[in-house]
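Hi C.,

You asked whether I'd gotten around to modeling the 201-residue construct. I have! Everything is below, sequence then structure, no commentary in between.
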Amino acid sequence: MKILIACEESQAVTIEFRKLGHEAYSCDIEPCSGGHPEWHLQQDVTELLKEKWDMIIAFPPCTYLSNAGACRLYPTKGNLNLERYEKGLKAKEFFMMFYNADCEKIAIENPVSSKVFDMPQHTQEVQPWQFGHPYTKKTRLWLKGLPELKHTKIVEPISPFLPSGTSRKIKTKYGVARDAKMRSKTFQGIAQAMAEQWGER
């Protein structure tokens, strides 16, 4: 299959599909860090969506949509930060570009969104600990023409992957990820499950 992995500089998912013989390409405005620039399309993804793809898997930016940023969206009780809200609406518009793409098989990944953005109903929620990584990090999937991911290796979580609340500032032991790039990377166990379970169809 010819597969577009959008908004992926790590190439985690791209590499797993390539292992199975698929023509998979990562796409991001940043250079790839996965070691395979020959499989990376460093450009705005918009034009690529006009091409014919057998499958599209997208990881659109979530900074302004995520419920984790609700404290910045509502800096004081009942008062909406209009500037951040507008950025969130633009992020939703970008998300919907993938959701409405002309492709029979689509998967979009994002964390839990703030209710104010009224996102489409997600298909499934997954956790790293369901795929062999001992962390909590609730992630939602929106699927079209693809089955829900089956858990591959359930383990006991030992820590949240993302720091929360004040822990980002004081750098407590809670939360493994220390920067935005690390927080956005796809766990290998989930990437493998995507390739093995969706790549055979």
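If it helps when you're writing up: The chain has a mean pLDDT of 89.

Thanks,
B.
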